[in-house]
Write a sequence for this structure.
């Protein structure tokens, strides 16, 4: 019990002290984790668990949509991707199709990996003053 409390406190501190960029990365990681859980649940014929975790993925994607900064023209490209991913999540959930969910995860992994590179580049530029 004590270890669980310590871990929960560590996780809470990690979130509370994270930068917005790090929080975005955590959300991508969370969506991928929940998507993987959903796939395993589908393969194990557990539709309730699959549904629960697909909804978690959808909630994270919806959060990304709601926080798009519309001052930049690229927001529309992200909007289109997020709408597509939400539609595919919905389709995966209805059909309980792990292949559709894997497609969603492929896109989320790519976006997460690109986001990691953005964070690295920003940190590097901050250090060099570029």
């Amino acid at each position: 019990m004590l270890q669980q409390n310590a871990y929960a406190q560590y996780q809470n501190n990690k979130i509370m002290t994270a930068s917005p960029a790090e929080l975005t990365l955590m959300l991508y990681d969370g969506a991928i984790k929940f998507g993987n859980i959903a796939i395993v649940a589908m393969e194990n014929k557990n539709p309730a668990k699959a549904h629960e975790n697909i909804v978690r993925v959808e909630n994270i994607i919806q959060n990304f949509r709601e926080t798009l900064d519309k001052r930049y023209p690229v927001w529309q490209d992200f909007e289109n991707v997020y709408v597509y991913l939400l539609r595919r999540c919905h389709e995966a959930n209805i059909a309980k199709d792990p292949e559709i969910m894997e497609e969603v995860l492929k896109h989320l992994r790519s976006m997460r990996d690109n986001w990691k590179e953005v964070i690295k580049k920003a940190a590097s530029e901050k250090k060099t003053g570029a």
In short: The chain has a mean pLDDT of 91. The radius of gyration is 17 Å. Residues 98-128 form the longest helix (31 residues).
